[in-house]
C-alpha cells in the first residue's frame, strides 16, 4: 500500500510517531480508551503501567500487528493507519521491533540474523555494521552460534541487535530486557540506551518497571486501565504527580488522612499547605519516605514523648527506619523514612524530623471525589 501524505498530515511532520484518538476493543472489552501520544525524532518514550493496562496493545497497533479500529497512526507525518482506509503492514513501516518473545531465525547464525535487515548494503559493510552492534551488546563472541545454542537472555540481546541494525527511525520495544538477570539487565539497558541515542532512533519502549522507565526515558507516559494518566519527563512524574496513582506507582509512600482547615492540613510533622483545596474537604497527605529527614536527639530513653525509632533495617543502598511520630497536638503516626547509606539507630532512639515538602503531595481523598 502506498504511503501518501495528506494535507492534514503536515502538522505532525516534526514527530517520528503520532498516535491520535486510538481506541481498541477485544471482543466487547475496551482496552485502549482514546490515546494521544507523539514521539519526537530521537526521543525515547516509555509506556509505563501495571499489567493489563493496554501497553502492549498500543505498541502492537503502532507496529501494525493489530489493525487499527479507531483513531490514526502517523509515521514522520505520514498516516500509516486509519480505520477502513489505510493499513500499512508491519514490514513496510520501517520500524525496528523487539518483543518479549521475538523469535530469531533458527537456521541463521547470530551474525546472519543481525545482518538480515541490511541486504541493501555491500557484504563487507553489512558484516561490519552487524558485528559492531553485537559488540556493543556484548554478543560478538557468539557471532557464529545458532539461536538454539544461546540462553534466553542472549537471544533477547541478538533480537535487540537485529532490530537496531537497519538504524530505523523508530524502534518499538516491548519489555526488551525482561529475560535478563538483574546485573546483566543493568548493563544491557545502559548499552541499549547509548546505542539508541547514538543512532538517534525515536523509541517507544513498554515496561512495567518504573525504575527502568526513569533510566531509559526522555519522557514517560504512565497508563492505567486503557488511558494515559500523565505524560512528562521522569522528573515531572516523580516531582509533580497529577494524582495518587502516579505517586504510588513510583514507590512506597506514607499516607495520612486529614481535612483542610484554614487552607492547611494538620499532620504530626506540622501544617501542610493545601490552600487550593476547599475548606473542610477530606484529604490524603502522601509523604515519600525520603522526605523525612532525621536527626538523632539526645534524650533520656523512655522518659520522653518525642518521635522515636521503632526499628531500622538496612536495605543495601539505603536504610528504612520505622518511626513513631508524635505531633505537638498529640497526633501520632507510624511512618517510614528512607535514609541513604547505612543508618541504623537503636530502637527507642529519639529523633527530630524535618520534612522536605517538595516530596509531600496532598490530594482530595478518593472517597471524597465524586
Ligand atoms: N488478543 C487478545 N484477545 C483478547 N484480549 C486481549 C488480547 N490481547 C490482550 N488482551 C487483553 O487486553 C488487555 C490489555 O492487554 P495488554 O497486553 O495490552 O496489557 P499490558 O499493559 O501490555 O500488560 P502486560 O504488562 O501484562 O503485558 C488485557 O486485559 C488483556 O487480557
UniProtKB/TrEMBL annotation:
<keyword id="KW-0408">Iron</keyword>
<keyword id="KW-0997">Cell inner membrane</keyword>
<protein>
    <submittedName>
        <fullName>ABC transporter ATP-binding protein</fullName>
    </submittedName>
</protein>
<dbReference type="InterPro" id="IPR017871">
    <property type="entry name" value="ABC_transporter-like_CS"/>
</dbReference>
<keyword id="KW-0067">ATP-binding</keyword>
<feature type="domain" description="ABC transporter">
    <location>
        <begin position="17"/>
        <end position="250"/>
    </location>
</feature>
<keyword id="KW-1003">Cell membrane</keyword>
<dbReference type="Pfam" id="PF00005">
    <property type="entry name" value="ABC_tran"/>
</dbReference>
<keyword id="KW-0813">Transport</keyword>
<dbReference type="InterPro" id="IPR003439">
    <property type="entry name" value="ABC_transporter-like_ATP-bd"/>
</dbReference>
<keyword id="KW-0410">Iron transport</keyword>
<keyword id="KW-1278">Translocase</keyword>
<dbReference type="InterPro" id="IPR015853">
    <property type="entry name" value="ABC_transpr_FbpC"/>
</dbReference>
<dbReference type="InterPro" id="IPR027417">
    <property type="entry name" value="P-loop_NTPase"/>
</dbReference>
<dbReference type="InterPro" id="IPR008995">
    <property type="entry name" value="Mo/tungstate-bd_C_term_dom"/>
</dbReference>
<keyword id="KW-0472">Membrane</keyword>
<dbReference type="InterPro" id="IPR050093">
    <property type="entry name" value="ABC_SmlMolc_Importer"/>
</dbReference>
<dbReference type="InterPro" id="IPR013611">
    <property type="entry name" value="Transp-assoc_OB_typ2"/>
</dbReference>
<dbReference type="Pfam" id="PF08402">
    <property type="entry name" value="TOBE_2"/>
</dbReference>
<dbReference type="InterPro" id="IPR003593">
    <property type="entry name" value="AAA+_ATPase"/>
</dbReference>
<dbReference type="GO" id="GO:0043190">
    <property type="term" value="C:ATP-binding cassette (ABC) transporter complex"/>
</dbReference>
<dbReference type="GO" id="GO:0015408">
    <property type="term" value="F:ABC-type ferric iron transporter activity"/>
</dbReference>
<keyword id="KW-0406">Ion transport</keyword>
<dbReference type="GO" id="GO:0015697">
    <property type="term" value="P:quaternary ammonium group transport"/>
</dbReference>
<keyword id="KW-0547">Nucleotide-binding</keyword>
<dbReference type="GO" id="GO:0005524">
    <property type="term" value="F:ATP binding"/>
</dbReference>
<dbReference type="GO" id="GO:0016887">
    <property type="term" value="F:ATP hydrolysis activity"/>
</dbReference>
Amino acid at each position: 500500500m502506498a504511503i501518501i501524505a495528506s494535507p492534514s498530515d503536515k502538522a505532525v511532520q516534526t514527530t517520528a510517531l503520532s498516535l491520535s484518538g486510538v481506541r481498541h476493543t477485544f471482543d466487547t472489552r475496551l482496552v485502549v480508551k482514546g490515546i494521544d501520544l507523539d514521539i519526537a525524532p530521537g526521543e525515547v518514550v516509555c509506556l509505563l503501567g501495571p499489567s493489563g493496562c493496554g501497553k502492549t496493545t498500543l505498541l502492537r497497533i503502532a507496529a501494525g500487528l493489530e489493525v487499527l479500529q479507531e483513531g490514526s497512526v502517523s509515521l514522520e507525518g505520514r498516516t500509516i493507519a486509519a480505520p477502513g482506509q489505510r493499513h500499512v503492514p508491519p514490514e513496510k513501516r520501517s520500524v525496528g521491533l523487539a518483543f518479549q518473545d521475538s523469535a530469531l531465525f533458527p537456521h541463521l547464525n547470530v551474525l546472519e540474523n543481525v545482518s538480515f535487515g541490511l541486504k541493501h548494503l555491500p557484504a563487507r559493510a553489512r558484516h561490519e555494521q552487524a558485528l559492531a552492534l553485537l559488540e556493543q551488546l556484548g554478543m560478538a563472541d557468539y557471532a557464529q552460534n545458532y539461536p538454539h545454542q544461546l540462553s534466553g537472555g542472549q537471544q533477547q540481546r541478538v533480537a535487540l541487535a537485529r532490530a537496531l541494525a537497519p538504524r530505523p527511525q523508530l524502534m518499538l520495544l516491548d519489555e526488551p530486557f525482561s529475560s535478563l538477570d538483574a546485573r546483566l539487565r543493568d548493563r544491557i539497558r545502559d548499552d541499549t540506551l547509548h546505542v539508541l541515542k547514538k543512532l538517534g532512533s525515536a523509541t517507544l519502549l513498554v515496561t512495567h518497571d518504573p525504575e527502568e522507565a526513569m533510566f531509559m526515558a526522555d519522557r514517560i507516559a504512565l497508563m492505567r486501565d486503557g488511558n494515559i494518566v500523565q505524560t512528562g519527563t521522569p522528573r515531572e512524574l516523580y516531582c509533580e504527580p497529577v494524582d495518587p496513582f502516579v505517586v504510588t506507582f513510583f514507590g512506597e509512600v506514607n499516607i495520612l488522612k486529614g481535612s483542610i482547615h484554614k487552607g492547611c492540613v494538620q499532620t504530626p510533622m506540622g501544617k501542610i499547605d493545601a490552600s487550593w483545596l476547599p475548606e473542610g474537604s477530606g484529604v490524603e497527605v502522601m509523604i515519600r519516605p525520603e522526605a523525612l529527614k532525621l536527626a538523632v536527639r539526645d534524650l533520656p530513653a523512655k522518659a520522653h514523648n518525642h518521635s522515636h525509632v521503632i526499628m531500622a533495617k538496612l536495605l543495601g543502598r539505603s536504610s528504612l527506619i520505622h518511626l513513631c511520630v508524635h505531633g505537638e497536638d498529640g497526633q501520632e503516626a507510624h511512618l517510614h523514612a528512607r535514609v541513604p547509606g547505612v543508618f541504623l539507630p537503636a530502637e527507642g532512639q529519639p529523633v527530630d524530623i524535618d520534612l522536605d515538602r517538595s516530596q509531600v503531595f496532598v490530594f482530595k481523598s478518593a472517597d471524597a471525589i465524586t
